[in-house]
Amino acid sequence: MVEDKIRIAQPYNDPEIESLVVSVLRSGRLVQGAYVRKFEEEIEKYIGSKHAVAVNSGTAAIHTALAAAKSSTTTSTPEVITTPLSFSATANAIVHAGCKPVFVDVDEETFNIDDGLIESKISENTIGIEPVDVYGLPANLFAIGSIARLHSIAVIEDAAEAIGASYQKRKVGNISTLTCFSTYATKNMHSGEGGFVTTNDDALDSYMRIFRNQGQVSKYNQTILGYNYRMLEISAATALVQVPKIDELKERRRAHAIRLLEDLSGLDSLGFQRVSDPFEHAWYMFAVTLDEKKANISRDKLVSKLNEQGVEADIAWPRPIHLQPYYQAHYNFREGDFPRAERICKSVFQLPIQPNLSTAQIDKVISTVKSLIE
After folding, report:
1. 361: CATH
2. Which of 26, 146, 252, 359 has the most CB atoms around its CB within 10 Å?
3. What is the largest CA-CA distance in the chain?
4. How far is CA 120 from CA 48, 70, 114, 151, 362, in A?
5. Residues 43-87 pLDDT 10s
6. Do residue 353 and residue 235 come from a single domain?
7. Alpha-carbon distance values, 137 to 12, 106, 116, 206 (Å)
8. From the DSSP assignment, how many helices (H) and strands (E) are in the chain?
9. 170-207 pLDDT, tens digit each
10. How would you classify residue 275: left for phi > 0, otherwise alpha for psi between -120 and 50, otherwise beta?
11. Are 280 and 307 in contact, with CB atoms under 8 Å apart?
12. Are 196 and 242 in contact (CB under 8 A)?
């Protein structure tokens, strides 16, 4: 076993975070207090959105946003259009919100939802479109927004991996009707566990703040059916320190990603997510696809060997959502339904680009990949 493995993710920590966490513990106010509100305010300033609503996970963020979007609709069988190429939470939240997930295949080059296929899936029951910014690359948000406005439906963007990303010079989080972020431990800005939703809509903001607090508009005064999605003060304090560092840490990720692109693009067995502007990608993950015949090694074997040699590679995600057992059993999805997403899931893997890596470590990632393929 390699002792100094190059990690694919390493949660940020510093003395200021540790000091704030101790002060929270000593304060006796542990849930949704001053630090949560301060965190929301700093996110609003950073993104430029009118509102940010903190919750206790990325999944809770999506569920909360979907519940808010659904609250103004009247259809008894609401549907939400999304992508099968994502973590299951993307669709799980749709189901938990009492909606039906309607999948659209992806663009094979960007890995994001193919916006050209969305309109054909819109029905009288569609209440929203949920694009995913896969690995931190924003989806085609302006085109998706235009489709949504044409049909008077919401865009509930899953930006779990895209804090710090931009789309045509506008910050992700200040484009869609609702934008959902995760601050899980591996994310570019983390709170251990947590998430938040941004919006410029006052009514949606008000609904979400009640929804996350058991549906209470005031203590013991419940007006809607809500959940306990309140963020911990420790989580908010941890994330708060990182807000001013989002762009700095993203720039380190971008620099590492550019190095990998430049040095690995000569290998004809490898493919990469198409990125028009590397400065707008959040670079949560550096995704690579492998042509197993050209490389003369399977994707899974390559990932295993990289890990054996001290480079922590990962496979996110080995199967698309529609082929997860639950979705096959409950919605009758089958292999071949969304062939582009399926092909990507069979060939994609990720390499480390997290900001704590040194030049020597990035060199090792590159040389190890080359030695195993060449």
Report:
1. 3.90.1150.10
2. 252
3. 66
4. 33, 21, 11, 12, 44
5. 999 999 999 999 999 999 999 999 999 999 999 999 999 999 999
6. no
7. 21, 13, 18, 29
8. 13, 14
9. 999 999 999 999 999 999 999 999 999 999 999 999 99
10. beta
11. no
12. no
Specify the CATH number for the domain of residue 147.
3.40.640.10
Q: Is 153:205 a contact under the CB 8 Å cutoff?
A: no
pLDDT mean across residues, the chain: 97
Tokens of 28: 């006796």
Q: Are residues 232 and 278 in the same domain?
A: no
Do both 262 and 363 map to the same domain?
yes
Q: Identify whether residues 191 and 250 lie together within a single domain.
A: no
- Give a yes or no: residue 1 inside a domain: no
Length of the chain: 374
pTM above 0.70, yes or no: yes
Residue 261 corresponds to which amino acid?
A: L
194 and 93, same domain (yes or no): yes
Q: What is the pLDDT of residue 374?
A: 80
Strand partners, 44: none
Report whether pLDDT(325) > 90: yes
Domain around 160: 15-244
Segment holding 90, helix H or strand E: helix 89-96
CA pair distance 41, 27, nearest whole angstrom:
21
Helix axes 233-242, 34-47, angle to 10 degrees: 30
What does DSSP say about strands 166-167 and 154-158: parallel, antiparallel, or unpaired?
unpaired
Listed residues 244, 275, 309: the one ending a domain: 244
